[in-house]
């Protein structure tokens, strides 16, 4: 099939700003649907582990349109994440639908930020947008990627991405002054020494980054999910969304928990029957990194040949989904299930009808026995039987000596199923483990932890991890979450603790699908830091991003458990 390529077409937005756009379309004279990708990284940079094969899309009869978002690779306008993407996305879609080569139907695809803009465009309700494929992304920018469902700042994600974008902004200037060249060298050094940059306080004191990205100050100035975030949230506008979505996620992606929550919410609350019933989901054993995990292979865990994004046939999934909703081919999705999950442990793909699974049974695993450090001997117990007596675990949380992030759901290359053994040996990490399993135990779904806690501080954190303990002792993390105590009742309205008072809280520990095999144990880790995945709580009740390390105080934190305080892990068990 012959094709036509139009380079650097300018599409004018409603306020007169022009966005440069590439168009690649079949040369047959017929009108075809358009597939739009909007990117802050460069409209020519289209290859990552999750993208469909572009040649296959063109051969399938689609025009491909790639566009630089406002303020990127453009010396005139300024890049401010999310602010212009709603109107710019809507204007671009309308322009495409009116072109003589377009049949009036538009779809969107893309990963990470390229997925965020899809939800923003869908929330406008623009009728020409018929389908989207948001990949490793979110419809609620507060909960992911900037902060979290428990209110802690996603520090490593925010700083790493901001430094990268500052580098792009600095190198994108033309011509580069001597000052710019010096700044580029300093930003490169920041990337090389990111660990030390992440430890710097105050977190908000990043003058070189904010010189090029002044909007970062606003992100850090809004630690609560206030109007700044709700106005940007596509999830809050679900009733306006009439566009079906195929969501592609990874169990070890930084967006995983929120993305699966978005999927369930859209199934229930989207603004049309097509959008509700048309939601589809694919989840693999993948991370956000394009160099580690996209093929299901991590340094400490190989999920097998079938785990790769190529084996998952994501290109065919894109085409079938677009054929159904842009070309009206009713049978395009015949034979494929609404939900496709990679079940870890048994390392197999499985089709399902819904998320969470319809036959989920939520089971309480009570915390019993001392959960203090060095619990490989099993002193901390997870049991389906309620604890017989009330007990308390106590530890010191020193923000100057935080529990280090080891693998997990991060933006960095060290994400994924990493061994937590060194972390679990610390005196400020509580561990509770099941007995050695004699039969397989499947956990598929959202995981939560109900705790009764107290502290000497007015504010502190309680992160948690679900871990798979292998027979040889490796402790591979499966999912994680955190709760900042000031946000225990509301992400929008902080409520500080009274020191010594006991509070019942629920921690979102993320999502997974894993079969714990015979000979394995399951474990829950509880601590008060997971750094630099999340920022360190200073324990003072102050504005954390503006505090110095010298301002931080040590907290005495306690987890209470027993008949009066039934602290428990709530697992989604699948029995078939």
Provide an overview of this structure:
The structure is a single chain. By secondary structure, the chain is of the alpha+beta class. Helices cover 21% and strands 29% of the residues. The chain is built from 14 helices and 23 strands. The protein has helices spanning 54-59, 85-97, 113-122, 142-146, 155-171, 178-192, 194-199, 207-212, 216-220, 227-230, 256-269, 273-277, 314-326, 421-424; strands spanning 3-12, 18-26, 32-39, 63-68, 102-111, 129-135, 246-252, 280-287, 297-298, 301-302, 339-343, 348-352, 361-368, 381-383, 391-397, 430-433, 441-455, 461-469, 475-484, 503-516, 521-526, 555-561, 568-574. Strands 13, 14, 15, 17, 20, 22 and 23 form a 7-stranded antiparallel β-sheet that branches. Strands 1-2-4-3-5-6 form a 6-stranded mixed β-sheet, with helices on both faces. Strand 18 (461-469) and strand 19 (475-484) form a beta hairpin. Helix 2 (85-97) packs across helix 3 and helix 5 runs antiparallel to helix 6. The longest helix is centred in the first third of the chain and has 17 residues, at 155-171. The protein is globular, with a radius of gyration of 24 Å.
